[in-house]
Amino acid sequence: MPSFEESIKKLESIVDQLEKGDLSLEESLKLFEEGVGLSTACKQELDAAEGKVEMLIKQRDGSLKPAPFLTEERP
Description:
Layout: H1 4-20, H2 25-52, E1 54-58, E2 64-68
Antiparallel strand pairs: 1-2
């Protein structure tokens, strides 16, 4: 399995190729499918990393307490 960085580079390459518009429909669909797979794998890896990230919340007494990292998208 490629690393996250390798997957992103490959995904960028696929996007560049598709944007040029000089591929056949069959080649475009093949690259699109590969890109969707890479995108899904990258999202899963990012979601897993986000779950590991914690930030410190400063308490009223001045001490720091770890808390889960929350984005605006999550309740």
